[in-house]
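Aggregate trends can hide what the representation actually does to any particular protein. This step matters because it turns folding into a mapping between discrete strings. For completeness, the protein is quoted in full, as a sequence line and a line of structure tokens:
=====
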Amino acid sequence: MSIRTPQQSAHLSTDALVAASAALLDRLRERTPLVQSITNAVVTNFTANVLLAAGAAPAMTDIPSEAGPFARIASGLLVNLGTPQAEQRVAMIEAATAANDAGTPWVLDPVAVGFLPVRTALAAELLALRPTIVRGNASEIIALAGLGAGGRGVDSTDSVDSAIEAATSIARASGAVVAVSGPTDVITDGDRVVRCSNGHAWLTLVTGGGCALGAVFAAYASLDDDRLLTTVAATTAYTIAAQQAAATVQGPGSFAPAFLDRLHLLDASAVRELAVIA
């Protein structure tokens, strides 16, 4: 059941977005959605721990003949192209196809697309399968839209604002909600545009800080039919936890465990008090 119908949410005020984000955090904890993560080898453990701390259940089911059946029973699916080995590439297509058949929301994270040929072709194939949500940094989103050559590996060389045209184009062509990460995250469904400005730079100094957010998007996407709203809520919870964690530690080494603690301890009242959404 939706918190609001698409018509009602078309012109949500900032206060309404904040209230909905708080309500969705409570709903996440009540439902403990099962999230299948087909993700890269560098971030598997951190992604699973982030999901657990946030209130979801992780499943790292990423081999052919298992990925598809699991996607049919999962609450949400993440497909992350960080280290796309041959077997995993087959599993990604299998899982995305099965997710579509079963109505399971799924997230595409086109890591480092643009100048790397294998993942760039795979990202295009997956985008044609119409993901529920696409997330990436500005350079990845621009490259996925065919408007640029990508960034410096996994690092963006473009600003978030410069990627809004590409994000809007992808959203309108695919039907996905597109989230562009940066100091201020921009989220669009091709019509509405929302900016989320919580967070801390140390998230970029923890391996998996961005990749794990895609899994949280998948968890929240299972909670409501308005996926722009769920993506805003997931971003807000995640970045508030980062902001809170950074206030208690001295650097990225101690930030990572503190971030997991703050995700676990985050409550709706903190979301209502600290969210910066426009």
Q: What stands out?
A: DSSP finds twelve helices and eight strands in the chain. The mean pLDDT is 93.
